[in-house]
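Narrative summary of target 7.
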Amino acid sequence: MLDGHVLSFGQPGDGGRFSHLRWTVAGRRQDELVNLMVTTHEAHHAALNSGTAWGALLQATAIAATLLPAEPNYVTTLNALAGRCRTVHEAYATHCSLVSILNADPDSTLDALLAHFPTYRTHWGAAVAVGPGGSHHLLWRQLAAESALLACMQPCVLRLGGSLADFRPSDIVAADSPDSRYHVLRKNADRLWQAVDDAGARVVGTAWDDLTRLDARTSDLPDDQLLSLRQLFFHAASELLAGQGHPSMTVDEVQQHVGGVINALSEVLGQIPNPMVDDSEHRFGLASLYELERIELRAPRPVRVRPARSVDPTLWVSGAAPDRHVYLVVRRSATLRRQFDLADDPWGPDEPVCAVQASRDEPGGGRSVELYPLAAPEELTRSAAERGVLASVAVSACQDPAWHERWLPALSRSTVLTMHLDQPVLPAVDALVEAGHGFWHTLVRVRHADGWQFVFACGIEGEPPLIGLCSLSAGQAFAEYAARRSGRPAAPYREVLGTVEPHLPLLVAHFVLDESYLETAL
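Modeled conformation, tokenized:
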């Protein structure tokens, strides 16, 4: 969302990637529909940026602001660009997320979904105001409002010359800002949609009247007809804007020019890899957006760090009988600093750390976490806990050859081993598929000590599974991509997770109850 003064696509300097999709779990586990509403809200923010002219500028500037922290002009530019599209962005994301649930679930109501989200109600009102009148269940009202908001994000701004380093928001006149264009459409909304209604009746005849009365919850219009309606509404909004002196770029024109934005970003990044890609062939689809998802859980928990050899191994044990276990994590030290409020920090900037992460529920309802780093694999003594040692090894840590050679064989022999998927999901799926050794993938809903959590898992036969926690929407997108890439549908998780399956609730609980955030990639 557009949170505070900066796009919450990872605020510059927070150590995150430039466009994390954020949603927050407040207090205990929320109703699943509300969680779905919030995470899809963030996905639509990203989708709006990925296919629009203004969004391309936002993406490029946000990446530069994150990857070039020594150059503060990018942060200033990002804040200004975000401020000039705030109304449109929030209205679009809120409207899309709400109608997707209202359309799919006949028992859901607008008031119930918005009960604890007063700001969402304001954004919903902004979206409704720019569309035609009528019930929010009408398909034509839903498509028209979203198409009008999309048109607001398509000013002619991608033909700017010069370097990205020299670009300033003042180079774009105020009238070309998405929010300025929004106010033009809102002021003329009645005239716009009456003209569309009149034209539809002339061209389509009585069938048009049926279309305007179609309930989105029961609609079975083919995709090509839905696309035609969206194109009609987008064109009408763009024509009205052009008549008021505010021309728009078409989707094809944006696609033609986005390569220039990517090249301009590459120039200022120099040797730093450019994460902005041209997906004109729609190979990745929404999966590339959800790959940036970040689930905020809580403020970092305070954690004491003590060498494993300095304490009695009985302190390593987490859980209660019959689920007592030792939980071993392998993470980059930079990740541990972001996840926890460390009382002690003995590590280098970004080295692999292997540590027992011991967690306990306190009598007063809190939860304590301690880290006991191991200096050598031999320090991992045999545990008397019923469940043994459960290990979660970050994929990023295995990219260190020396660590991999010294530690991973020992952990494979002495633990129930899983790989934490802390790298971009789609390249990981690609690499596993290309390995050609029995690729599998699954999406599972895991019940743990505090509720439910979705897990996307994948791997190849004979190797430990790669596990990433995610929202339902992200998991479905990853599973769909994996199915297209491999030609295989999702597998029954009990079959492919093997000995890991009965331990999955304990592993998931440590993620959800101990850590401060979940994300599908660093």
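Residues 9-22+31-268 form one domain.
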